[in-house]
Write a structure and sequence with these properties.
By secondary structure, the chain is mainly α. The protein is 76% helix and 0% strand. It has two domains: 11-121, no CATH class; 137-190, no CATH class.
Length: 190
């Protein structure tokens, strides 16, 4: 698991460096429609045609995997959450998470219709940046939730509590995100 996280972090940092090189160093202002082809062109100039094709295929695969993951996980989570709110037994909740249940289909309709207005904004890069900013709040939210739930809420005696080292790491994660967030806000205000 740690190896997967390590390589995901390396990949993320590599994409950030590549995007920085493609968008800011060349001095050419890219429009929204030129963002992905601009990065592919920059990689093609450095690595050759293989780099351009690899980036294009990788970009398509990442977008497809993200869409597939969202379209399967969000309705499942919503349907299960609905069952928990209604205090339904586990067997009934398992039926709700199937693709034929009403809560599952309501969530599918919701995630289908809500993004449609953004398709007509004419600014896809703005939508991507906004999505990235909102998505970046997931990790600190997860860290805070784990810190709270595994130290404060008495579940049962079977659920282990966080070890002190885990709590320290979660606090460090929160502190780093808070520091970076404050630094970014300060940079925007200046």
């Amino acid at each position: 698991m740690g190896v997967a996280y390590f390589f995901t972090a390396i990949f993320g940092m590599s994409i950030l460096l590549t995007a920085n090189q493609a968008f800011y160093v060349r001095g050419v202002r890219l429009t929204d429609a030129q963002a992905v082809p601009g990065m592919a062109e920059m990689l093609g100039a450095v690595i050759g045609p293989v780099g351009s094709w690899a980036y294009g295929i990788g970009f398509w695969a990442a977008v497809f995997a993200s869409l597939l993951g969202v379209w399967q996980s969000i309705p499942y989570l919503y349907a299960d959450f609905y069952g928990i709110l209604k205090k339904l037994p586990r067997e009934t909740r398992a039926e709700l998470t199937k693709g034929t249940s009403l809560p599952y289909r309501v969530a599918l309709v919701f995630i289908t219709l809500v993004p449609l207005p953004f398709a007509f904004t004419g600014r896809p890069l703005f939508v991507i940046i906004t999505y990235t900013i909102v998505g970046s709040l997931f990790i600190p939210f997860l860290a805070a939730t784990l810190l709270y739930m595994n130290t404060r809420i008495p579940w049962t005696t079977e659920v282990p509590r966080n070890h002190w080292t885990t709590n320290v790491l979660l606090v460090i994660v929160l502190a780093v995100f808070l520091a970076v967030g404050l630094q970014e806000i300060d940079g925007i205000l200046r």
